[in-house]
């Protein structure tokens, strides 16, 4: 696919996938129409970079649907002064998006392969305001915190399992996380209003693969 074809595909993605899902934030729309998603997609899937699918990236992982990435960014309402944590670097595409919106992005991934590939791809795009970490985000809070916004790119079975991320939020900070088990999951926006006061808001229903090392859902037997 030639460069002008990617530009057209990028435009169509925004108009046909993003806007219909009520993503109207001009910063998000402009960013997704200009940032080359094909740069972060595996070579064998480049022609599908802007398709309404979860693009496989290896290690059994997939990129989120573009519309979910857009919803995430709009919900977090990232400001130019924000410090953002991304849980699940993956392809590095969302990392690049967040870096364009925020002052600083810290991104952690379980797979060192993703961390190394994302570092190279982000550098090639001239993006510098990021720190990439190889590790398990569910193990311990990161010393780089607290954060103004946290984007979790894998699901958790219950809201209680998101506690480790809630506690890494600044007051006024926002957490985007998908809660539940298939086929019933919700994108949640959790806002920290005070030390022990959090507000939860349901954004939409969706399905997302579990975060690596996420606790297994409790199964009741009768």
Structure in words:
By secondary structure, the chain is α/β, with parallel strands linked by helices. It has a seven-stranded mixed β-sheet with strand order 5-4-3-6-7-8-9, with helices on one face. Strands 1-2 form a two-stranded antiparallel ribbon. The protein is globular and about 50 Å long. The mean pLDDT is 95.
Can you count the helices? 6
Span of the ends, CA to CA:
55 Å
Spatial strand sequence of the major β-sheet: 5-4-3-6-7-8-9
Indicate the mean pLDDT: 95
Radius of gyration: 17 Å
Total beta-strand segments: 9
Fraction of residues in H or I helices: 25-40%
Structural class: alpha/beta
GO molecular function: protein-L-isoaspartate (D-aspartate) O-methyltransferase activity; rRNA (adenine-N6,N6-)-dimethyltransferase activity
Organism: Candidatus Thiodiazotropha endolucinida
Family: Belongs to the methyltransferase superfamily. L-isoaspartyl/D-aspartyl protein methyltransferase family.
Protein name: Protein-L-isoaspartate O-methyltransferase
Task: Provide tags for this entry.
222 residues; alpha/beta; Rossmann fold; 7-stranded mixed sheet; two-stranded antiparallel ribbon; 6 helices; 28% helix; 27% strand; globular
Summed up:
The chain is an alpha/beta fold. The chain is built from 6 helices and 9 strands.
Note the topology:
Elements: H1 3-18, H2 26-34, E1 56-58, E2 61-62, H3 66-76, E3 83-87, H4 93-101, E4 104-109, H5 112-124, E5 130-134, E6 147-152, H6 163-166, E7 169-181, E8 184-194, E9 197-206
Parallel strand pairs: 3-4, 3-6, 4-5, 6-7
Antiparallel strand pairs: 1-2, 7-8, 8-9
Helix pairs in contact: 1-2
Domain Ribosomal RNA adenine methylase transferase N-terminal: 68-194
Keywords: Methyltransferase, S-adenosyl-L-methionine, Transferase
Protein name: Protein-L-isoaspartate O-methyltransferase
């Amino acid at each position: 696919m030639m460069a002008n074809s990617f530009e057209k595909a990028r435009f169509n993605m925004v108009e046909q996938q993003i806007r219909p899902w009520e993503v109207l934030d001009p910063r998000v729309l402009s960013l997704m129409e200009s940032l080359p998603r094909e740069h972060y997609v595996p070579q064998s899937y480049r022609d599908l970079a802007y398709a309404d699918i979860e693009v496989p990236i290896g290690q059994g992982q997939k990129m989120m649907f573009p519309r979910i990435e857009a919803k995430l960014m709009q919900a977090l309402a990232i400001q130019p002064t924000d410090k953002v944590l991304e849980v699940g670097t993956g392809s590095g595409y969302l990392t690049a998006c967040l870096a364009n919106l925020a002052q600083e992005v810290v991104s952690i991934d379980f797979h060192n392969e993703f961390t190394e590939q994302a570092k190279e791809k982000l550098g090639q795009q001239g993006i510098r305001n990021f720190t990439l970490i190889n590790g398990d985000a569910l193990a311990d809070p990161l010393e780089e915190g607290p954060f103004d916004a946290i984007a979790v790119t894998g699901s958790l079975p219950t809201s209680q399992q998101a506690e480790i991320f809630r506690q890494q939020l600044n007051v006024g900070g926002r957490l985007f996380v998908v809660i539940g088990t298939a086929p019933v999951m919700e994108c949640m926006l959790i806002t920290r209003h005070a030390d022990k006061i959090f507000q939860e808001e349901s954004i939409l229903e969706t399905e997302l693969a579990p975060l690596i090392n996420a606790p297994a859902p409790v199964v009741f037997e009768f």
